[in-house]
Amino acid sequence: MATHERLHPKEPERLSLARIPTPVTELKNTARQIGISRLLVKRDDQTGFELSGNKIRKLEYILADAIASGANTLVTHGGFQSNHCRATAAAGASLGLRVRLLLRSADPHPADDGNLFLDRLFGADVSIHHPDEYNGRRSEMIEAAMEAERRAGRRPYFFPVGASIPLGCWGYIRCVAELVEQIGRDTPLAIFCAVSSVGTYTGLSIGRALLGCRNWRIRGIPVSDNVEILSEDIRKLERQTNERFDLGLREADTPIDLIDGFIGEGYAIPYPEEVETIRSVARSEGMLLDPVYTGKAMTGMLATIRNGGLRPDETPVFIHTGGAFGLMARRDLFSQPSRRDRDPSQ
What we know:
By secondary structure, the chain is α/β, with parallel strands linked by helices. The chain has helices spanning 28-34, 55-68, 83-95, 114-121, 131-136, 138-151, 166-182, 199-210, 227-245, 272-285, 294-306, 324-328, 339-342, and strands at residues 2-3, 14-15, 24-26, 40-43, 73-79, 98-104, 125-129, 156-158, 189-195, 216-222, 315-320. It contains 13 helices and 11 strands. Helix 4 (114-121) links the parallel strand 6 (98-104) and strand 7 (125-129). The longest helix has 19 residues, at 227-245.
């Protein structure tokens, strides 16, 4: 499953797991509603059914490295509805690798639904950890899991939440290369994406620089931490990627552009405006967003456009990073009628 095609001389080996290039489509009805001529979406929710979303792009590189190192067990972590962990569980099953997932949940017995249901269906070894342990003792928790795997005679390979490490950044450098082919390097674009573990944003930013897309802006919408924290995380990952692969980039080549104000009360905590966005896009476009990442990111993008946040001749592109399985686990958010249902004049 390995491929040796290179988009850049420094690109590492990858496995061919995702169905890429993903399509670019238009959200014509939403564009009309917000008063612009064109709104595009890069459908990374279509990277493959079981593997859907942005994480599998990153995992193509990380799992190639895991297999090359002789590992037979993958160890990673995330929230109990983590898209990353579900994609890891599915990819591990397809490659014949054991998967061990360390998941965060305040409820010791969260509902077996959405991504968590699929983790277990794919055969992953799942353990649930309270946020106090997960946040306060994560290093010890991970090392204990790794040691348990080694004692069992297995060869574990660890990678962190979101696969957001230098290897994983190449997944979204490659996404930029697809957009160059699909839209054109010289077309002015404002590319919007959700930002949490920062690997997707960092890959897009590095890809923009490496591939000479000077007319593009990479605009991130935080869905977990504030702009200051995420800016530091992005710079750190950029430096690590630049140094590891000797890319020769300067900080000026990768400007950070984050739009605050759309996190709500915190990570994975939806809010009414976001729920309305998810419902509206589903009804207007037949496209599903999720309440953790893409719902907040779409809410932020639409508000930015309405408030005059596009430059002249700039076309907005939304990176749809997936999350439909997580949406299925939050049916409760849609039990009440929408504003439009209550007042058809809206």
